[in-house]
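In the previous chapter we treated chains in isolation. Here, by contrast, the input contains two separate entities that must be folded as one system, with a combined length of 975 residues.
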Amino acid sequence: MRYLPLTQPDRDAMLSVIGVSSVDDLFVDVPEAARLSGPIAGLANHASELAVERHMTALARRNTVAGEVPFFLGCGAYRHHVPASVDHLIQRGEYLTAYTPYQPEIAQGTLQMLFEFQTQVARLLGTDVANASMYDGSTACWEAIGMARRITRRGRAILSGGLHPHYVSVAKTMAKYTGDLLDTRVPALSADTDISDLIAAIDDDTSCVVVQYPDILGRVADLSELAAACHARKALLIAVVTEPVALGALKSPGEMDADIVVGEGQSLGVGLQFGGPYVGLFGCKDKYVRQMPGRLCGETVDADGRRGFVLTLSTREQHIRREKATSNICTNSGLCALAFSIHVTLLGERGLRDLAAINHAAACAAAERLAQVPGIELVTPAFFNEFTLKLPVEARPAVRTLAERGVLAGVSLGRLYPGEDALANGLVVAVTETTTPEDVEALATALEEVLA
Amino acid sequence: MTINASGWKPEMTAEQGDAPATHTGNRTLMLEEPLIFEIAGPDTTGVDFADAPAAGGDRLGGLARTAPIGLPGLSEPEAVRHYTRLSRQNYAIDLGLFPLGSCTMKHNPRLNEKMARLPGFADVHPLQPVDTVQGALEVIRQLAHWLVTLTGMSSVAMSPKAGAHGELCGILAIKAALAARGDGDRRVILVPESAHGTNPATAAFAGFAVEDIPATADGRVDADALIARLGPDVAGVMITNPNTCGLFERDLRAISDAVHSAGGYVYCDGANFNAIVGRVRPGDLGVDAMHINLHKTFSTPHGGGGPGSGPVVFSEALAPFAPLPFVEDRDGHLVLVEEENAEDHHAQSFGRMVAFHGQMGMFTRALTYILSHGADGLAQVSGDAVLNANYVLRSLEGVLDAPFAGVGPCMHEALFSDHGLADGFSTLDVAKGLIDEGFHPMTVYFPLVVHGAMLVEPTETESKAALDQFVGALRSVAERARAGDRSLKTAPHFAPRARLDETRAARKPVLVWREPDLAQAAE
C-alpha cells in the first residue's frame, strides 16, 4: 500500500523490540466483543491511483461546471478568476502539510503570512485589527453576535432582512442554546433596505444590529446613520460582507463606523468548491480585541532581538481557558487564508480596484440588458456586482428550466426563502469579471424564450 | 551514533558564535523575508486584466471608496518569491516526521489534492439546482456511507466545519434530544481531566456546567467515579477514545451502559479514531455521537491550521436531531434536505450550523483516501500507527519516563513525562532541542494529567528508518536534559528564529502592520 512505508520484515523487527508477537497483541485493551471480526462490510480492498481517479472523475463529470456554461450565481459564493500562482503556492508542502504554528521558531512562514493576512483583512474591512480567520462567513457572523453580547452584556440582536438567510439560520440555531434573542425579518422585494426600520428597533437591551453590505439582494446602503443610532444606545454595529471584491469599489464598513466587520473571503483565492472550505474574515475596533474569537498572530522579537511572529492572546482560547474561552473554535481556515492573502498581494491596491471596477461595469451592463427583457424589472438600482430582478413568473422553476437549457441563471429567492410568496418572483443575478457579454446575451435570450 | 541510513554525519567546523554576520542577514538557504508592506508598491500588480475598466456604469449609490485602502501589490515573480521564501521557514510533514500527539500529522496523498481540483468538484456553486450537482451530492452520500459503516453508527451530519464545530454539533443534538423528551433540566456534562480543551469549551457554550472526572493511576478515566456521579442532573459525558494518554478506554461500554440507564448520552471525541479505524466501531461501544476529524483519520491536509472538517456520526437515539442540511437518496435522485423539505421525519433537527453544505473540498479528499486504502488498507493504517507508537515507547525506555508504559501497550501515541530531567530543565527544553535536530517537537504539556507531558504520535506513514532517526534524536536530547546541558536552555540554535518573546507579544499586542511613522505615533 503506497502510503504505508513499513515492510513486513520491519514490522517483525519492531514487534520483537516491543516484545509482542503480533500487532493484534497491541490491541489487548480493546475488549474482544468490540473488535471487528472481519473486514469492513462492503468496502473493497485497496485500489490503484488510476482506479480511484476513474471513480472520482466519473462523479465529477455528473456535475455542471460553472466555468463551462453561462453562469450567474452569487448569494454568498462568487466565481472569480484566481491567478495560477495562488494554487501553485498553497500546494507547497511547507504550507499544505504544516500544522497550526504552535512552535513559532519553525513556523515563521505561516505566522508571517497570517500577520500579513490580518493586516490586509483589516484594511479591506476598514477595521483596526483582524484575526487569523474563521471557518466561513456564516460562523464568523454568529461569533460576532456572541462577541457583541459579551461586550455589551445584552442579549438582543437585531438582524437585517438583507442578511443572507443561511447566516440568519445559523444564528437562530446557536441562539437557541445561548439564550440570545434575535429580532429577524425577511427582505422586501424592493429598492429600499430596512435601515430605518432597524434604527427604530434599537432599544436599551440591544446588543447589536447586524447588516449585510452589499445585502442578499445586492443592494448597497450607507451605514453611517445606522452606526450612529447603534452607538447612541450603546449597541454595536456588525457589518457582514459576503463579497469582499466589493470593497475594492465601495466605502468600507469600518469607514462608516461599524464596530465589528465580518465576511466571507471565498471570492479571493478560494474558488466555489460547492460551498467549502471557505474562509471567514473577522475584524473589529482595537478596543474590542480581547473579546475576539479565534486565533491571532502578533509581532514580537526572538532571544536575539530579531523580529518574529507568534500566536498571541491565547488566554481567550479554549486550549488555555477551557470552559471560559471566548469560543470553542480551534482549527480555523489557514490554507484558505493563505490563498486569500496571495490573491490580494497579487492584485494589490491597483489590481483590486481594477477588478472591482470591471465587476461593477459588467454588472451594470448586464442589469441594463436583462431589464430590457419583456416583463422583467430591475429591483435594485444601486448595487455592486449582484442585483435582483423581478420576473413575471416564479423564479425557482424558471431557474430549473434555464438550467435544463444550459444556463445557470442565478439564485432564485424561492430557493433561499421557500414559502415567502412575496419573494417568489425574485432572481438574484451575480456578474463578475468571468462573465462575458455572450454569457449575458445567452441569459437574456433564454429568459426571453422562457418567459414568452 | 548513526545519524541517517548511510551513516554520514555532518562535520561541524565552527561554533555558531564564530560565524560572520552577513550583509543581508541571510545564512545561505536560510533567507530573511520582509513583510509585503515593506517591499510592495501601491501601483504594482501581479494580475493583468484584458479590458480596462469600462467607463460609466456608476450604480454604487454614492458609496464609492475614495480613500486609499492600503493594499500594496507585488508582480508575479516577486509574489512567488515572497511566498516561497516564507514557506522555507516552516516545518512540514513533507520535510520529516511531525510527531504532534493527538494532532495526527500523517502524509497527505497528492491524489487527494488532484481529485479535489477536478472542475466538477472545484468549480461548482453550492446553490446550483440539485439536478446539476448530482455527482457532488453522490460524493457526500458515498463518504457519509463509509463514515457510518466504519463507525457502526446510524447516521452522519456532514456539515460541521472542523472538529470543534463537530463537537458543538454533537452536544447540541444531545441538548435537543433532552429538550424533546422534556428533560431539559439536565445541566451537567462530565468531562475527564485528560480531555481536549475544546470539550469543556463546547459544553460551556451549549449552556452546560462542566464537571471534571479524575483519571486513574493507569491513565484511564475513573469509571467508578464517573458512574457514581451519574444522576438526574447529568446530560451526558464527553469522552475521548482512545484517550489523550494514548490508551484505550477499556470501560467505555460499561460507562455507556451506565450513562444510558441514568438517562444521559455519550459523546465521544473522535480525534483519535485513526488508532482504531477498520478494527473497532465506536457504535459497538455505546457511543451516541462522535465527530471525525477528516484531517486526522482521513489524511486531508492541516494547511497550517485548517481548513478542517468534522462530520458527526450519530446513534439511532440522536439521529433525528442532526443538523440540516444533509443528502438523501429519494428514488435514485439525490436531494439536499433543507428547512423546506425536512418533512415530518426530520422535524426535530436542531437547525443549521453553516451556510451551504459543509467542507466539500475535504469530502473529495477523504473519499479518495478511503477508496485508495480500502478495507485491508484502513485496518493496516491503524495497525501500523499503533505499532509505530509502541516502537517509539519501548525504544525510549530508560531515557524518558513513560508513566503508563508499565500497564501495557499504548495505542497510536506514546506519552512521556518530564520526570528525571535535571533541575531547571523542562519539557519545553526537550522540545526546543528537538527542533535543532531537524524535527518538529511532539505535543507538549498536554494532556494535563501528566506533569510536563510529551505526547508523541508518529502515525503510520513513517518508515522504520525515520522512526530510528527520530528515536536517536529524542534520546540524545533527553540525555542532555537529564545531564543538565545548559545549551538546551537556549535552543533552538539553528532555526530561523531563536525562542520568541510571547509575553511581550501578549502584553502590547501588535496584530497588524502600520507604517513606521504611524506605529511610532501609536506608542
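Chain A has 14 helices and 13 strands. Chain A touches chain B through 211 residues (CB under 8 Å). Compare these points with the single-chain example from earlier in the chapter.
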